[in-house]
Amino acid sequence: MAHTNTCSVEISKDLFQLQVSFEIPAKGVLGIFGHSGSGKTTLLRCLAGLEKKVKGQILFNDQIWLDKRKSISPQLRNIGYIFQDSRLFPHMTVLQNLEYGMKRSGSLHESSQQSLFQLLNIGGLLERMPDSLSGGEKQRVAIARALLKKPQMLLMDEPMASLDQAHKNEILPYLERLHDRLSIPIVYVSHSLDEMSRLCDRILVLKSGRVIFNDEITKALSSAESPLLKTKSAVVVLNAKVSHVDLEFGLSAVITDSGTLLQVKGTHRKGRRLRLRVSAADISLCKSKPADSSILNILPAKLLAVVEETHSEVLLQLAVNDDILLARISKKSFKLLELKFDMDVFVQIKGIILQSDVS
Length: 359
Hints:
The two termini are 32 Å apart. The protein is globular and about 65 Å long. Helix 3 (94-102) packs parallel to helix 5 (135-147). A six-stranded mixed β-sheet has the order 6-7-8-3-9-10, sandwiched between helices. The protein has a five-stranded antiparallel β-sheet with strand order 13-12-11-14-20, with no helix packed on it. It is an alpha+beta fold. Helices cover 22% and strands 36% of the residues.
């Protein structure tokens, strides 16, 4: 029987007050999103048991972590915590840092340990010292150390905030692999919408210590009610399954959960689940289906709404079957095409970004 995991906490610190209630998923990634000062890290520390004078209740795996009578220690909560910096011991080798992570929980079976090293690609780093590692390597080691404790939840507090873009690109594929492989929940704090769209299954948006949105990532990026919709880098996430592989042309046909058929680059295993990200900037519109086009994904759609309008551009919300897409086009094109609410159009998807794969 599935556990009901809930968090309802309230804490006052100086002039700031955090007051939130939400469910913690049994597995997958819950994103905590918000601008600086919204309460993201404070919420994570409440979950970990690191904050004092917290009111409310936290239930996880049929265990009471917090209620009116008690607050159990961080050690008893058995949580893995990844900080913005790796916090590796500088005087220890990578292997010694990892062995420290196993002391409290006991050694993993060697095959499980090697599987984890392979998952995070750190087998070749074991004899090195932390100061010889790149930022991405340090964070991968820190993640491995946290997982070697066999935690029942993994908390990640902006683990890429201190990395430059090159090192972020290095570590993101490994975080995506954790999403696919781990059977425990991950609570991931960030103010990067790109990270959220790549990693999260659900997203909790905080503003001034309050929850202003809580839903699946697909709805967070496409729903008119979402505070994340009006962004310059607007993107939607679609979950799909590979239905056919075209070896001749190096393509795969995928079907989204709402039944939309798309062609994507690469030959992926039939039946494999993929996360697709479609940028609003990569969609163009036409009123009739083009007879000759190099674009493979041309689909009938219905114009639902003008979400945002600037001096030169409009952001449009469209429905393809039950999938929601966004398109950012010039205001001039919008006027010339005489686009209106509920109009039937065709969308041309110029690019689909697949979740990275390092397997």
